[in-house]
TrEMBL record:
Name of this protein: indole-3-glycerol-phosphate synthase
Gene Ontology biological process terms in this record: L-tryptophan biosynthetic process
Catalytic activity: 1-(2-carboxyphenylamino)-1-deoxy-D-ribulose 5-phosphate + H(+) = (1S,2R)-1-C-(indol-3-yl)glycerol 3-phosphate + CO2 + H2O
Keyword field contains Nucleus: no
Pfam families named in the record: IGPS
Keywords: Amino-acid biosynthesis, Aromatic amino acid biosynthesis, Decarboxylase, Lyase, Tryptophan biosynthesis
Pathway it works in: Amino-acid biosynthesis; L-tryptophan biosynthesis; L-tryptophan from chorismate: step 4/5
Organism of derivation: Tetradesmus obliquus (Green alga)
EC number(s) from the headed UniProt entry: 4.1.1.48
Keyword Amino-acid biosynthesis among UniProt keywords: yes
Length: 352
């Protein structure tokens, strides 16, 4: 594979630089000056820090964007759940890599059946139903709600979503915080479900993209709060080489403005996640606000497929997101907790 030598480097350049700068001592004053909510929101830059490679005991992990120092008892603690998840990923990836080194995954990826067209499946379903294309999420648990579906059978749920009219499926693979797994993804793929599959993971290394592909994913999630544009571009390139599409997720208008500078977005999807990662509150009005902003208008002008994510429970919520201008919705909790997910999908999309 052409890209294998480039992708053999596990740390994109920007991440190496961040790790170095994290090693410098951080004064309280620096934190006070730089770490304001306004600065984080206005910049649209990455708000999630990486854990220093040698651990927080030996290296401070840097000022926390978005938090006033008075609100943060210890800058070496994660500022929110997303940062906590991302810090844990380093350990998790290391343990995966011990069992399956990258060259092994790359060889398996070369033998895998080709990825299916995630974006085309959404557009086709939206045309057929007149509703936003549904990405239905196979989600057992979450940090905000704990266990959502105790009677969790990923293959049964995936097949039921497809029968109800979902365009694509999202499969949570994070084990520690969502009780998901890459095995669930592989099982759903092996069961012959024909909806294209999104690997819902917290990607920080190209290794995870290969693991997703080998497990049957057709698309992966990339989170703008975690990844600077240089990393996003690098991972988009890796996905393209593997025939996969990306769902690039933003939480703010400024993040959207930043990711709009990336090339080739027309082949991918952008998502607005309505969940505040500090409070866990979901607010669909965020999708509306961002779609009405100058960056949102640019998305519409350029015909980029937009996804409304999180907190969608009723047909009215679907109509609200559609009116805001999104062409797809990503729904987990409200569908997965239903006894009959097929009926749940039909009801949500008001399909006969
Ligand atoms: O779901 C959470 O509690 C959560 C917490 C921290 C980071 C991400 C989280 N969820 C991931 C998602 O984006 C949702 O699973 C997805 O958008 C579906 O949301 P919902 O329909 O509200 O289950």
């Amino acid at each position: 594979m052409q890209l294998s030598s480039q992708l053999g480097c596990q740390l994109p350049v920007t991440r190496c630089k961040r790790a170095q700068s994290a090693a410098r001592p951080v004064s309280r004053q620096t934190v006070t000056v730089r770490a304001t909510v306004e600065a984080a929101e206005a910049s649209g830059e990455v708000s999630i820090r990486r854990r220093p490679p040698l651990g927080n005991d030996t290296q401070p992990c840097g000022p926390a964007m978005g938090y006033k120092v008075g609100n943060l008892p210890d800058i070496n603690q994660p500022i929110n759940i997303l940062e906590e998840i991302v810090w844990y990923k380093a350990k998790e990836i290391e343990s995966f890599r011990e069992k399956q080194p990258l060259p092994m995954l790359q060889a398996l990826a070369r033998q895998a059946p080709p990825a299916r067209d995630f974006k085309a499946a959404i557009l086709a379903k939206a045309k057929e139903t007149g509703k936003p294309g549904l990405i239905a999420e196979v989600k057992k648990a979450s940090p905000s709600k704990g266990v959502i579906q105790p009677n969790f059978d990923p293959v049964r749920i995936a097949a039921a979503y497809e029968a109800g009219g979902a365009a694509c499926l999202s499969v949570l693979t994070d084990e520690k915080f969502f009780q998901g797994s890459f095995d669930n993804l592989a099982k759903i793929k092996a069961a012959g479900v024909s909806c294209p599959l999104l690997c819902k993971e917290f990607i920080v290394e190209a290794y995870q993209i290969f693991k997703a592909r080998v497990s049957g994913a057709d698309a992966v999630l990339l989170i703008a709060a975690v990844l600077p544009n240089q990393d996003l571009a690098y991972f988009m390139k890796a996905c393209k080489a593997l025939g996969m599409c990306c769902l690039i997720e933003v939480h703010t208008e400024a993040e959207l403005a930043r990711v709009l500078q990336l090339e080739g977005l027309e082949h991918h999807l952008l998502g607005i996640n309505n969940r505040d990662l500090g409070t866990f509150k979901v607010d669909l009005a965020l999708t509306q606000r961002i779609m009405e902003s100058p960056a949102g208008q640019e998305v519409q002008r350029r015909g980029i497929l937009m996804v409304g994510e999180s907190g969608i429970f009723t047909p009215d919520d679907v109509a609200f997101c559609q009116a805001a201008g999104v062409g797809a919705i990503l729904v987990g909790e409200s569908l997965v907790k239903q006894g009959d997910p097929t009926a749940g999908v039909k009801q949500l999309l008001s399909l006969a």
